[in-house]
Amino acid sequence: MTTHEYPPGAPGRIPPPPAASPSVAQRTAWVDLTGRTALVTGAARGIGRACALRLAAAGADVRLADLDGPGLRALADQGVGEPLEIDLSDLDAAEEAGRGADIVVNNAGVQTVAPVQDFPPERFSLILRLMVEAPFRVVRGALPHMYERGWGRVVNLSSVHGLRASPFKSAYVTAKHGLEGFSKVVALEGAEHGVTSNCVNPGYVRTALVERQIADQARAHGVPEDEVLAEVLLARTPMKRLIEPEEVAELVVYLCSADASFVNGASLAVDGGWSAS
Ligand SMILES: NC(=O)c1ccc[n+]([C@@H]2O[C@H](COP(=O)([O-])OP(=O)(O)OC[C@H]3O[C@@H](n4cnc5c(N)ncnc54)[C@H](O)[C@@H]3O)[C@@H](O)[C@H]2O)c1
């Protein structure tokens, strides 16, 4: 067993991050994004933050877009990028944010868990606006610059839920499936301009979004958090652990590299085998 593997139903707390993973500094040699401007949405924490750190380590000038001003400033204070405090559900602002970007990482997202008959309609609309329409508007803003330079990268943070459904996540699953379609259309239109567009499809990642779901379900069912993780969230995942945000960021930075120039219109699972089941 390596540090990345946990036996099914392992007792104890949520497994810790894998040990011995190389530092960001050790990973920078093979991806050089010097001279590229990258916009990362939802950059203040979680996967977006890890992507921002990784892209900055690869030499990109990173624009950090998020609602969470203090979170952004904390990153900017570390020299990671330029903060852009923005509500991406304001679609005109989202399009403006995309202007001038060579790399777009569409990452900002939220989750609501409820059966369809109880799902608040205004929440359904917001989730589609933030997770489908905002990526469309960001990319709409960015493409003219990318086409002019003959190079661009669009990376869409989709999910296994862009490929598979789960009950009680109607808005999220609908949004991620929509994002998958949008990503493929951009891949087709962008190809002749040196612009690629791909989806990254993580399983459950160790972020606030998932930790909230674990806590909510544990409360709702009166069971310990470990049990929710093993028996609900990871029930369909052969590898019984959460993914670390940095592992997702590694795939994102690869998609932005020169080596990935022929990877286009793809949906790349980083899900411990969930979508193979
Ligand atoms: N965590 C997972 O298990 C997981 C799995 C698959 C896919 N994803 C996807 O990855 C992306 C990031 O998820 P995460 O787990 O890092 O979430 P997170 O909740 O940790 O971070 C999301 C970020 O988006 C920002 N945000 C939310 N609404 C916004 C708005 N209206 N305008 C601007 N910023 C806004 C938040 O402030 C936050 O910083 C999401 O699209 C999510 O669907 C997450």
Automatic annotation (TrEMBL):
rRNA-binding is among the record's keywords: no
Enzyme Commission number(s) from the entry: 1.1.1.30
Annotated segments matching region Disordered: 1-23
Pfam families reported in the protein's UniProt record: adh_short_C2
EC supergroup of this enzyme: oxidoreductase
Keywords attached to this entry: Oxidoreductase
Family classification: Belongs to the short-chain dehydrogenases/reductases (SDR) family.
Record GO terms (molecular function): 3-hydroxybutyrate dehydrogenase activity
Protein name: 3-hydroxybutyrate dehydrogenase
Keyword presence, Oxidoreductase: yes
Ranges that cross the membrane: none
Record-linked InterPro entries: 3-OHbutyrate_DH, NAD(P)-bd_dom_sf, Sc_DH/Rdtase_CS, SDR, SDR_fam
Biased composition (Pro residues): 8-20
Gene Ontology biological process terms, A to Z: monocarboxylic acid metabolic process
